[in-house]
Design brief:
The chain is an all-beta fold and 157 residues long. It is built from one helix and eight strands. It has one domain: Immunoglobulin-like, CATH 2.60.40.
Length: 157
């Protein structure tokens, strides 16, 4: 028996089954025709499972994107870059370049993160500055409780 968790994203094909390594990427109004999915795969390691120095799992991210317009159609941009950001947006990690098709970027060793694809003018920007075209949440992010947010407690914002 398969139990679905709240907020879990079904696998492609609509089977309703959840996959703890899959991230559905949603388009933004900047690129409404874009779509994508990402899959977390363990980064290469001689020990079978890659971990950071402090014991967090390290993943490469395989992004499959479609419908991304030429970056130059959005402004003075030359490429798309994938980023991992902590939920509070205080830490951003550049993962790599994304094109239409299958791309492997990473590694990322954040426990809970947002996956963001943005248009950028530089091949290796230090921070995300361009418009976001795709975004998604790591599977561990589905465990986030929003009960403390004023919107869900009936408190003024």
């Amino acid at each position: 028996m398969l139990l679905a968790t709240a907020g879990a994203v079904p696998r492609a094909g609509g089977s309703g089954a959840t996959d703890p390594y899959q991230i559905h990427l949603f388009p933004t109004p900047t690129a409404p025709g874009a779509s994508g999915d990402a899959r977390l795969v363990f980064a290469a390691s001689p020990f079978g499972v890659a971990v950071s120095e402090d014991g967090r799992a390290r993943y490469d991210v395989q992004i499959t994107a479609a419908g991304l317009p030429e970056p130059s159609t959005l402004g003075a941009y030359a490429r798309y870059i994938a980023w991992a950001a902590t939920p509070d947006l205080t830490t951003w990690v550049r993962l790599g370049t994304v094109t239409n098709g299958k791309n492997t970027v990473g590694p990322v060793d954040l426990n809970k993160f947002l996956l963001v694809v943005s248009a950028e003018s530089s091949p290796a920007p230090a921070s995300q500055t361009g418009p976001t075209v795709l975004h998604g949440t790591s599977p561990s992010g589905y465990l986030q409780s929003f009960l403390s947010h004023p919107l869900f407690r009936g408190l003024p914002q």
